[in-house]
Design goal:
5-stranded mixed β-barrel; Phosphoenolpyruvate Carboxykinase, domain 3; alpha+beta; 2 domains; single chain; 6 helices
Length: 298
């Protein structure tokens, strides 16, 4: 599979707000953030105050071919960045892969996925792990192939162009640009070859419920536990992106894919207290009890 260069064109876009099949995504304050719609053989995605993207419902000659019409006065580089960060992962999900919110690192046993809610520290932790010798493979969008090369293949990671989505505090600590934009190579970009999944770790900061949610019992120490398949499946769905979340219950492909992932890949939950300094301890725990253990078992 390939990704073709984003095509800047003009087209007549749907009336998203008036269409009965439109999915509307809201920000926390209730303001519309984005629309998504399937119509006329296209998947349409509209980001307010940015651009309208569309790509065919099926690949074109083995490639993602996407068109975009930016809003007036929007910087082209920002439109391209959002294409790789948001549109491309959704498109590959529509084309048969799965899309998980997290980051991923290369380890001796394969790809380690760290999944968490936004603002939980996954990018910071990923950068800490990369300093320990485990290169980053993905940040924010993790593309998973549940059954590469047929049913006998181990669930695998497929890489896309990316740069770490570092917030200001993290960027300053690691000497990185704040929210650096993706600048992909010219021409076709090949979807990365399969890298077998070694393990998946779900971060839960502040308590067992995670992310300091009300009702979560606070924790003062880090704790790593391996999840049973049913727990792992529920956790994986909670961090998965969907082209059409309203149709998830009837999406046998995605359900089957995620069931296959948890049947073949060890899944852990790691709870830890809030605070940047704690992440060093978290990185040590993951390296000792997940990375090294899975490398020995591989």
């Amino acid at each position: 599979m390939y990704i073709e260069e984003l095509r800047f064109v003009e087209f007549e876009q749907p009336r998203f707000a008036e269409h009965p099949s439109t999915l509307t995504y809201l920000r926390s304050g209730g303001r519309v953030d984005a629309y998504m719609l399937r119509e006329g053989g296209w998947v349409w995605i509209r980001f307010e105050r940015l651009a309208t993207y569309r790509f065919p419902e099926s690949p074109v000659e083995g490639a993602l071919r996407c068109e975009v019409m930016p809003d007036p006065d929007v910087e082209r580089a920002y439109v391209v960045d959002q294409f790789y960060r948001s549109i491309t992962p959704y498109a590959f999900e529509a084309y048969g892969f799965e899309n998980v919110h997290g980051c991923a690192l290369r380890t001796p046993g394969g790809a380690l996925v760290i999944a968490a809610r936004p603002k939980t520290g996954k990018t910071t932790l990923g950068l800490l792990m990369s300093r320990r010798g485990y290169p980053l493979l993905a940040d924010d969008a993790v593309i998973i192939d549940p059954a590469p090369a047929g049913e006998q293949g181990r669930p695998s990671l497929r890489t896309l162009p990316f740069v770490p989505m570092a917030r200001r505090e993290t960027a300053v600590r690691f000497g990185l640009p704040v929210r650096q934009r993706i600048d992909p190579p010219k021409g076709r970009v090949k979807l990365g070859d399969p890298i077998p999944l070694a393990a998946i770790v779900f971060l839960a900061r502040g308590g067992h419920g995670g992310e300091d949610r009300p009702g979560s019992a606070p924790v003062s120490t880090t704790n790593l536990e391996r999840l049973r398949p049913a727990e792992a499946f529920e956790a994986l769905l909670s961090r998965a992106h969907f082209v059409d979340p309203a149709q998830l219950s009837g999406d046998r492909r995605s359900i089957s894919g995620y069931l296959r992932v948890v049947a073949h890949v060890p899944v852990f939950r790691l709870t830890y207290p809030s605070g940047f300094d704690v992440l060093e301890e978290v990185a040590e725990l993951i390296e000792r009890d997940v990375v090294r253990a899975e490398a020995s078992a591989a």
